[in-house]
Description:
Blueprint: E1 10-16, E2 28-34, H1 38-47, E3 54-57, E4 63-65, E5 70-76, E6 84-87, E7 90-94, H2 99-108, E8 111-112, H3 123-128, E9 132-133, E10 136-137, H4 138-141, E11 142-148, E12 154-157, H5 159-162, E13 176-183, E14 185-186, H6 189-206, E15 212-216, H7 238-244, E16 251-252, E17 255-257, E18 264-267, H8 273-291, E19 300-302
Parallel strand pairs: 2-5, 3-5, 4-19
Antiparallel strand pairs: 1-2, 6-7, 7-13, 8-14, 9-10, 11-12, 11-13, 15-18, 16-17, 17-18
Amino acid sequence: MTRLPQPRGRLTPDRPLSDLTWLRVGGPAEWLFQPADPKDLAEFLAALAPDIPVFPMGVGSNLIVRDGGMRGVVIRLGRGFNDIRIEGNRVIAGAAALDAHVARRAAEAGVDLTFLRTIPGSIGGAVRMNAGCYGAYVADHLIEARAVTRNGECLTLTPQELNFGYRHSDLPEDFVITEATFEGAAGAAEVLIARMEEQLARRDATQPTKDRSAGSTFRNPAGFSSTGRADDVHDLKAWKVIDDAGLRGARRGGAQMSEKHPNFLINTGGASATDLEGLGEEVRKRVFQNSGIALQWEIMRVGEPAPGESLQAD
């Protein structure tokens, strides 16, 4: 096995990743690196051979790791990256801080970042994919983000440099977000907290929150501006085109498109990554046959298939 730099944080070979993803599937990482702090991360990446691939992983809320696992180094931020600070109407959050925790802390301080409350995952992933909910997006509130490049350089990035789009940014895949600064409007804490409770109730009424899923499977097909806001009254919803194709509740092995919300891919128990990704590809194929719409994955799929596995739709 390749010799790697020796960091202060934890470096684990052949670390299974299935227990680190919300869908509970996937093979091992060749190496899992959990840096102690940003300096440890930067020094490790600066010393790491440039031909070794790097993948930053959050809390696995929007991820399928394929059954053959991942080559190179998977980086997962932990306690050294989850601080949350409030400075006036600005909230500075470590990349490992959970979106929901940031929303709650901000609300308690009278800062409105309530849109983060129902977004699964952590701040690093939210910035990377311009996460949003209820008409507000990271792009609307981000002041700056700190990141470490693949060669160990520490950068401060503006929203313009990240070039946000709908569920997208131009952040290179091997850059690691370490911290983000947001700004929100002032509001009464009790009002903001009540709003979040209403959002949670609405989410639980319409989404399979008690099932093992990774959130929305596919992006809405069209009609969004660069900030993620709808700019076309005729924009389509992914769940609707899936439903129209008769795929609500569709199954493959232990994988299923939710009966409650057909844009949620769930592990009903015992699903493999191949089951989940294969069902997703089957849905894409049948939606295209039915409507001519090519759905795009919102869930990230990474790693290698296990030997002999196929992702082809039946």
